[in-house]
Amino acid sequence: MLKRELIDEIAKEQNSYLKRDISQAVDIILEAINEAVAKGQRVEIRGFGSFSVRTRKARITKNPKTGKVMDIPTRKTLNFTMSKSIKEPLVNSDK
Description:
By secondary structure, the protein is of the alpha+beta class. The protein folds into two domains: about 1-40; about 40-95, HU Protein, Chain A. The chain has helices at about 5-15, 20-40, 85-90, and strands spanning about 45, 50-55, 60, 70, 75-80. It has a three-stranded antiparallel sheet. The protein is elongated, with a radius of gyration of 19 Å.
């Protein structure tokens, strides 16, 4: 789903609001999430999931094409953990 599709879905449910107002609200929410994660804070949205920053250790690896040994430095990555209400239908859909 694209951002504009999300805005369209919200507009269908909340037809008393203008799309530009909904778009602005979505932008504010996404910006708040971005700022919190950039500060290293955990963002939890109940019923959806949580975003957190994790640090990956430095490691040494080998380039399979050239065989050259490379040092990969420590870096931060974004981690998303989905809520149980999202995870269960995904796991049970395989059965």
